[in-house]
Amino acid sequence: MSFQYTEATLNRLIKYWLNTCLILLALVYFRLAADVANLPMAQAWRSMDAGDIRFRVINGQHTYLLGVAVVMLFHKYLVNNETKPSKIITALFIIAVIVLQHRSVWMATFVAMISSLALPSIKKTKVINNLIIISIMGIILLIPVVYMGYADKIISNIFLSAERATSLTTGTFGARVSGWKTILYYFSHQNFLHQLLGDPFGSGYARSKIVPHNFYFQALLRVGVLGTFVLLLTYLITMAKLFIKLAKKDDTNIYLSLFLMLMIGQQTFYVPYGQQAEHGIILGIAISLAKRKKLLSNLNNTKSQSQYFINTTPRLEKDVNKT
Fold it and tell me: Is 50 exceeded by the pLDDT of residue 316?
C-alpha cells in the first residue's frame, strides 16, 4: 500500500479542516450569545449536558475539533514559509475552547501547544512570543464581554470547571476515576485468555453499558493486553520516528512538527475520552510522514512537488524515476 502526501495535499487538508471549524466556531458563538441571553433555545443544549455547568453548547468531542484547529493555527506562527493567520482568529478559537469548559480539551490543546518547546525544529522564542501575543489579543477581545457585565457568569463557571478538574473524588472526573477502578478490578479477575484478547464486542464494559471515558481502558477491555500493546507501540514508534526526522533535519516537510504535536495532544485527549473517526485521519497522515521515503532527491522542484511513498518497492522506484 502506498501514500502520496505532498505538502500541497496537506495544505488543502488543513485548509478544509480550518474552514469547517470556522463554521463550527460561528455556531458556538451564536449558541453562547443565546445562552447568555437566556433565550428559550438554550434549553436544548443545557438539557444534554450531564453536569450543572453552563455554556457547554457543544460536546467534548466537537470541542476537540476546535482544539486541533488551535494547534494548527499556532503551528503556522512557528514555521517558516507559511502564511501567518490572523492572531484575532486564533484568539477567538482559544476563547471558545476555554469558555466551553471541557477540561480534557483544555489539557489536550495546551499539552500539544507546549510540546512545541521540546521540538528541535522550532525556536523556543517563537513559541513564547506568540503565546504572549495571542494572550494579549484574547484579553482585548474579552473587554466588551466584561463591559456588558457577562464576564462574572462566564469566569465563575470556568473556575468551577477548573476546580472540578483537579478533584479525583467529586464531579464527573471523580466518577470516571471510580469507573476506572471498577474496570481494573474486573479485568484483574478475568482468566488469561480474556486478559490477552479482551471481551467480545457488544459485551459491555466491565458489566456496564457506559463507555469508560478512557480510550486506554476501553482498548484493554475490547482487544486485551495484546491489542492495547500493539496500539500503543504504533503511536510510540510513529512519534519517535517523527521526532528523529526533526532532530536529524533530513526532511524539510514543515508538517512533521505539526503532526507530532497533534499526536501528543491525541494521547492526552484519550485519558478521559475515546477515539473518534476524525482522529484516524491525523494518525494515518502521521504514520505516512513517519515512514515515508523521498524518492526524487534530485528534483529541481520545491518540496511541494516532492513525492513520498510507504513501503516502496524497487519496481515502483523505477517507474517513478521514468516520469
Answer: no
Q: Cβ(163)–Cβ(106) under 8 Å?
A: no
Helix (H) / strand (E) element for 308: namely: strand 308-309
Which pLDDT score is estimated for 312? 35
Q: State residue 306's pLDDT score.
A: 38
Give the span between the Cα atoms of 198 and 224, in whole angstroms: 4
pLDDT at 179 over 90: no
All three cell numbers of 318 = 523505477
Select from 68, 81, 70 the least CA-distant residue to 130: 70
Q: Mean pLDDT, to the nearest integer, of 225-236?
A: 94
Nine cell digits for residue 148 = 456588558
Site of grid cell 469547517: 20
Instruction: Measure the CA–CA gap between 44 and 46, rounded to whole angstroms.
Output: 6
Tell me how far CA of residue 249 lies from CA of 28, 119, 122, 243, 245, in angstroms. Answer: 40, 11, 11, 10, 6
In the predicted structure, residue 301 carries a pLDDT above the cut 60: no
* Alpha carbons 206 and 211: distance in angstroms, whole number: 10
Distance CA 194, CA 115 (A): 37
C-alpha–C-alpha distance, residues 253 and 303, integer Å:
7
Query: Helix (H) and strand (E) counts for the chain?
Result: 13, 2
For β-strands 293-294 and 308-309, DSSP reports them as antiparallel
The one-character DSSP state at 205 is B
Q: Are 239 and 288 in contact (CB under 8 A)?
A: no
pLDDT digits (tens, 9 = 90+) for 72-88: 999 999 987 667 888 88
